[in-house]
Write the structure tokens for this entry.
Amino acid sequence: MPESATYALDTRGERMDALEQYFREAARELREPGLALDADPDAVHRFLHLPAVRLQQHMLTPARYARHDDVLPSFVPAEASCAEWILAAEWLAYGDPGMTLASPGPALSTVVLRALADEAQQDWFFGRTSDWPTWAFFALTEPEKGSAATELTARLDADPSGEGWVLSGEKMYIGNGAHARVGVVFCRRATGPWGIEAVMVDTGDPGFHAETLPIIGLRGARISRLRFDGMRIPPERVLGRHRPRSRRGLQGALQAMLWFRPSVAAFALGVGRAACDYVLEQRPALAGAGRAEVDGMIDRLNRLRRLLRDVAAEIDAGSPNTFRVSGVKMRAARLAEDATLLAARLLGPASLVEHPWLDKAYRDVRAFEFMEGTGNIHRRGVFQGLLRDDYFTSRDRDVRPGRVAEGVV
Ligand SMILES: Cc1cc2nc3c(=O)[nH]c(=O)nc-3n(C[C@H](O)[C@H](O)[C@H](O)COP(=O)(O)OP(=O)(O)OC[C@H]3O[C@@H](n4cnc5c(N)ncnc54)[C@H](O)[C@@H]3O)c2cc1C
């Protein structure tokens, strides 16, 4: 390797180490607020001063809209790469995943905007989400169309006045939907996948209705039901309207999900690791079979972490393997659930009553199965990758004894 390449690797490694150290420290402050949020999801307003709550907005905002103040150190990047964001997501979730999802910022919509929007549209959207505190939503799921998202039915009809569009329909389970100022809504202008459009809405406009839904885990996500009742959409709010039909609406949704699936895996990984550490804190003398089970779980989580970093690096390099992303997301949701089940078993029959944090983690992790696609859908993705012989990397194909191909169920 040339010397310059080694140097570049070292400095990048050092920067990631500094970031990780910072995220770890910042996330420590989230445990207590997380429990408060579980009791009252709107309690996030009491914690807006915490640096950890500022991270989502800063890291997911394009650099030219990011506002630098002294809440975060200057080495925390705006417009973070996928690798940088999953590092933050893992540690933030180790602190509390609900607090991260409740934090203001552009959230998933940032990827749709970056993929599809022209400059004026980015100004419109990020100009608003850069105001602190502002929440944004990403509305794809509908009451009867979750996994089958391409069959969505929300309609975008030509405005009878002759200019612009009219949005009608419902969306379901939308994070921060009832608290957001702006959002991106996927809707149908014509039949078929290329008839899907993505439009930006201002929730202050007439025709927008929202209610927060009750949920037993990950309550900070404040999932909502939204209704668009003949909401007027000016032509300039249709994202990617300068692009061909095959490269807008649905394309934006797919890119956002691809980019954020590793984040959900990172959330799951963070909570899974926290559950293992919690057992060891509570039972420092744990030995024998129980200790071996915790060690085994930590091993599996560490292997997942490596895979997660690989898929994030592939996304950043512009050569994502969607099948492996599916494998990692599916595996992470499963492991997080297993880690909380293991913790509950090892801490005794009344553990969920005696340990409020564990009770919350045990409920929270169930949401990861549903976010960014369920296990069944990802299992199908992995299977398709295997059929096409496009799942394993050359490193996985190393068949020397002792090499185990990871990442498949
Ligand atoms: C905390 C949280 C936050 C969320 N935030 C957002 C958000 O911000 N924006 C948004 O748009 N959505 C959001 N969602 C919704 C999420 O994306 C959906 O829950 C998910 O897509 C699954 O859809 P569904 O719940 O309708 O389940 P369904 O699609 O009805 O699936 C129900 C069950 O059937 C199985 N199933 C479905 N289809 C198939 C198939 N073809 N083959 C085999 N099995 C199948 C599934 O695996 C699942 O077990 C959020 C969900 C949660 C839990």
About this structure: Residues 1-10 have pLDDT under 50 and may be disordered. The chain is about 50% helix and 10% strand.
